[in-house]
Amino acid sequence: MKINIASDYHDMSRQAAERFYEKLQADPSVHFGLATGGTPIGMYRHLSELLASSPLKTDALKTFNLDEYIGLPPSDPNSFYSFMKEQVYKPWNLQADQCFIPDGNAADLEKECERYEAMIDQYGIDVQLLGVGKNGHIGFNEPGTRFDALTQVVELKPSTRKANARFFPSTDDVPTHAVTMGIGSILKAKEIVLIASGEAKAEAVYALVHREQTEDWPITALKQHRNVTVIVDEAAGRLI
Ligand code: GLP
Fold this sequence. Notes:
This protein is of the alpha/beta class. It has a domain at 33-199: Rossmann fold (3-Layer(aba) Sandwich), CATH 3.40.50.1360.
């Protein structure tokens, strides 16, 4: 595992964006696994700027998202689809057939999970971006999730709903369930880049670096992957 301590959020975002840019440069039909949340916004902006001033084309790139809330229509401003449209799909000029995200409104959610997992297997993810929750969750895989779990429906912990409430009118408006790639699905990626910023993430980053693998800290599953780069700012890295 490579650990890069960035000086601040901006530096973390720049380093992560440059890694993804290099991957696209090396292979224009690369498959990116992407994440939502506040943390990747700076990285997406930086990559958008790099792309805007570069001859690199994005028309062969494919993106695969980690998760989506259940019960929010894609048009809802708080759906992860809306987030991606705003932060990535539009600025990177991606067309619908390049962008994959679980359907949290599927009539049969079990089937949707199977479909999404089959697609991950069919295409393969070259590099997966991850953020992390305060309690060490990756995607929406909360503490206690099995490390071999595949794409699944999960119930969100109250603490996760509270943390994500900042994007909603109130905590009650945050959906209770989501579809998420499982930890087993995430570990299938050829390369993983995890970014974390701010003191609230320091304990989770500590767990990744210093604890044994434990389902109490989903982030520790990354210890079994051969190609992980962790990019944290000083505040998130202060305990390591
Ligand atoms: C959500 C997402 C995660 C993300 C986490 C942390 O729960 N499902 O993928 O890592 O939030 O988000 P933030 O970056 O806003 O702290």
